[in-house]
Amino acid sequence: MSHRQITPPVRGIAVALACALLLTACATTTSSTGRKQYVGAVSQEQLNQLGAQAFDQMKGQKPQTQDGKQSAYLSCVVDAIVRELPPQWRQGGWQEAVFVDKNPNAFALPGGKVGVYTGIFDVARNQDQLAAVVGHEIGHVIERHHDERVTRQMGASGAVQLLGVLAGAKYGDSGSQLATQGGSLLAQGGFLLPGTRDQETEADVVGQRLMAQAGFDPRQAVDLWQNMLAASGTRPPEWLSTHPDPRSRIGELRKRAETLMPIYEQARAAGRKPACG
To answer: What are the pLDDT digits (tens) for 30-59?
Structure first.
């Protein structure tokens, strides 16, 4: 059963039971926007390992661009955003990949992985708009949204099965197959599926702030989503399937952009003037 089909009280009980059974450090915490979160069913090290596995799986499933300019363009934007992250999120460096796919899609994973589809360049038409995409996706990582998803999934999917998965990753050949199967489950359900609407809204807030701090124009986040809405026609692209109503979202982005202009101007005055493309 998907976690989206579980009512909040039942989900909370499931998560609590999973945490108790797994004897892990499940905890209630508060995000930077003040939202209550259930996290900690797996360690950050395990999340990073699962993020790397999901990234490798994607590389095995989709061809990567042979256009070096596209790759350098993405790397430049990612580097500028990452420089504005808290120190713990900059450690170990970040890796990027551009996948050949016409859909306007993007993601970021624990362990410092960022992927975009070539279709994103059709709607992100300048470096500031691409920064809005990258900032949003990195916002999911630093706000621990993947941790939340995995914690919920462990409650929904059954703690015993996932306990075996995590144990199998450590203990020999007999555990290896379980670890691979379970890693795929977590990669898809915990990492690559879209987040909840609360998470998407939060990633908007954090991502727009990050782009302003990095010297990208936060007003361009509005233009990005207008482009995205225009490109979607009558059917929103998959990336938008769990996002807030696009028109309401654009209104919120526009309001926040005005409040972020002083931060953007301070960044530019301090010499943060990205020139990515």
So the answer is: 888 888 887 887 888 988 988 898 899 899
Both tokens of residue 33? Answer: 């926007």
Q: What is the mean pLDDT of the chain?
A: 79
Task: Kindly state whether residue 50 falls inside one of the protein's structural domains.
Answer: no
DSSP 59-88: HHHSPBP--HHHHHHHHHHHHHHHTTS-HH
Q: Which of 128, 163, 192 is the last residue of a domain?
A: 192
Helix axis angle, 197-213 to 220-232, nearest 10°: 140
* 137, 148, 200, 202: the active-site residue: 137
Residue 30 pairs in a beta bridge with 36
Q: Which residue has the tokens 């950050």?
A: 44
Q: In terms of residue numbers, what domain contains 111?
A: 64-143+195-269
Q: Are the beta carbons of 67 and 121 closer than 8 angstroms?
A: no
Whether 84 sits among the annotated catalytic residues: the reply is no
